[in-house]
Design brief:
The complex is a heterodimer of chains A (about 300) and B (about 220). Helix content of chain A is about 30%, strand content about 20%. Chain A is built from nine helices and 14 strands. In chain A, α6 runs parallel beside α7. Chain B is of the alpha+beta class. The longest helix of chain B has 17 residues. The radius of gyration of chain B is 17 Å and the shape is globular. The chains are: A alpha/beta (about 300), B alpha+beta (about 220).
């Protein structure tokens, strides 16, 4: 079955984020102004989501003796420039040996675990599982990326760089789980039609399947959220429809993970969410990066 | 009652990374108690939690009470851990550890009763093959998302399943963790019964080449 390769320390999976850092990300999310909310900018929310997902990935790999390198992680920012936001050269500068099969734009997840920019105090209040009142938990949440919002949206260039990384990584790891690319954007590419670039990226892969491209679309509209759609019908605008077509269909194990979260999916469901709230975004990213059993 | 336990970590892992556990047989008059547990891969301290569970479950206690006792013992053990841990270690400790558990009591006449949370399995096998598997009876029913018992005192214990039966004189009871249980249900128990340590290791290597999922393996054989 495709997308069933073991993910392990000797055969890690690659996860590459493409983070929209364009000027439009200064705006708040849809509906915030109408509600009179003092809403954070899209850039802030999406940076928070990427930070939270990285935290989730690290915790999934963390054992009592350290963080196991089940994943190689990259983040490409696109706005004023298209550039990796973390680099293998950072690993070398930290005095560590680079992996023999490393790419410049990917770092082991353990490297990120030990080097957040800072830790922020968070207070979480939730109902206790046993029904006995509320539980207050204080924790320290790591931050790796601060929000940025400048210039246009060179999404095609970002996808082109991602394609090169995916192609080179797959050549080094031909039997591994295919790379996963997650594009986080407000949807409006300003350097051309991104669909052919997305289709080209998905032509590369490993023996276990094509590279997976998932898209998170946060628009300025107040349209209702859509998660894992299986058809163009019902998507509210041309940017959503383009991002949907760019997105890979969910492999079987991810469909099963989505259904275990209570989401209805079909064979045609794609890895695309539109205007989902931040909690749903994290859930989407957890489903999309949980291919199966970690070893 | 005769019993023997075999275990191996997943291929590519060291023995210290083995996260299953087993205990028994514990003799209690005419009865014997055995238990096994499978620590969740994504938990920290999963091996310690699995060991705390089997230590409490291999007893006369009903499984629900054994779990509460294991939680208290585990919490005491964690309290002595260092406090200056990295942010992710503190977060994992706060999450708690998770595991499946299976506890079985067998009378001298072969009557048995079992309690379980998750996908550790009890199989009954003989020269004619595997005639019974519980709580999962088919290889295709394993879904990698079993119910798990949390080490946290405030977490609800998932539904505990119960079963009873009789172990025949010519039969073997096998308590297995999920990877080997699924393989034996599909391919049969030929070759895995009555092995010594070296023989078991060879059997596991062949089974993994033959498609058994790469995971920690634990098998307790019980015979009247």
């Amino acid at each position: 079955m495709p997308y069933s390769a073991e993910i392990s320390r000797t055969s890690p999976a690659a996860i590459l984020f493409l983070l929209d850092q364009s000027a439009s990300m200064q705006e708040p999310f849809g509906g915030a102004e109408q509600r009179g909310d003092a809403a954070p900018s899209r850039a802030r929310v999406l940076a928070d989501v990427v930070n939270r997902l990285l935290q989730n990935l690290i915790l999934r790999c963390a054992k009592e003796d350290g963080v196991r390198d089940y994943f190689s992680i990259g983040v490409i920012g696109y706005g004023e420039r298209v550039q990796p936001l973390i680099r293998q050269s950072d690993v070398v500068m930290a005095g560590e040996e680079p992996s023999a099969s490393a790419l410049p734009e990917l770092v082991p997840v353990s490297f990120l675990a030990d080097r957040p920019l800072r830790l922020e105090e968070r207070v979480q209040r939730s109902g206790r599982d046993d029904g006995r009142g509320m539980e207050v938990r204080r924790s320290r949440a790591p931050v790796w990326f601060d929000p940025e919002a400048r210039n246009g949206t060179p999404m095609c260039q970002a996808l082109d760089l991602a394609t090169r990384i995916v192609r080179d990584w797959a050549a080094l790891h031909p039997r591994s789980f295919p790379p996963i690319v997650i594009n986080v954007t407000d949807g409006e590419a300003t350097d051309g039609n991104p669909l052919p670039y997305a289709q080209h990226l998905r032509e590369y892969g490993t023996d276990d399947g094509e590279a997976l491209l998932f898209n998170i679309h946060r628009s300025g509209s107040t349209e209702a959220a859509v998660e894992f759609p299986d058809a163009l019908a019902g998507l509210p605008d041309e940017y959503a429809r383009t991002l949907y077509q760019m997105s890979s269909k969910l492999p079987f194990t991810m469909r099963a993970a989505a259904e275990a979260e209570g989401l209805a999916t079909s064979l045609d469901s794609r890895g695309f969410v539109f205007n989902a709230d931040p909690g749903a975004l994290v859930r989407f990213l957890e489903i999309g990066t949980r291919p199966g059993h970690l070893r | 009652m005769r019993s023997r336990g075999h275990w191996l970590p997943r291929a590519g892992a060291s023995e210290s990374e083995y996260e299953d556990a087993f205990e028994g047989p514990l003799r209690d008059g005419s009865r014997h108690h055995v238990a096994n547990a499978d620590g969740a891969t994504e938990s920290a301290y999963a091996g310690q939690w699995a060991r705390a569970l089997v230590a409490a479950a291999c007893s006369t206690l009903p499984l629900a009470q054994a779990i509460e006792e294991a939680r208290r013992a585990f919490a005491q053990g964690m309290a002595s851990s260092a406090s200056d841990l990295p942010w992710y270690a503190n977060a994992k400790m706060a999450e708690g550890a998770h595991a499946c558990v299976l506890a079985v009591t067998i009378e001298a006449g072969g009557q048995w009763s079992a309690s379980a949370v998750g996908d550790c399995c009890l199989l009954l096998a003989s020269g004619e093959g595997v005639r019974f598997g519980w709580p999962i009876g088919e290889a295709s029913a394993f879904d990698h998302r079993p119910d798990l018992v949390s080490s946290r005192l405030d977490k609800v214990i998932p539904e505990i399943l119960h079963a009873t039966g009789v172990l025949g004189k010519e039969e073997m009871m096998l308590l297995c963790t999920d990877a080997v249980a699924a393989y034996v249900l599909e391919r049969g128990a030929d070759g895995v019964i009555g092995l010594d340590e070296a023989g078991f290791e060879k059997w596991v290597e062949r089974a993994r080449r033959d498609g058994m999922r790469n995971d920690d393996v634990t098998v307790i054989e019980v015979r009247r």
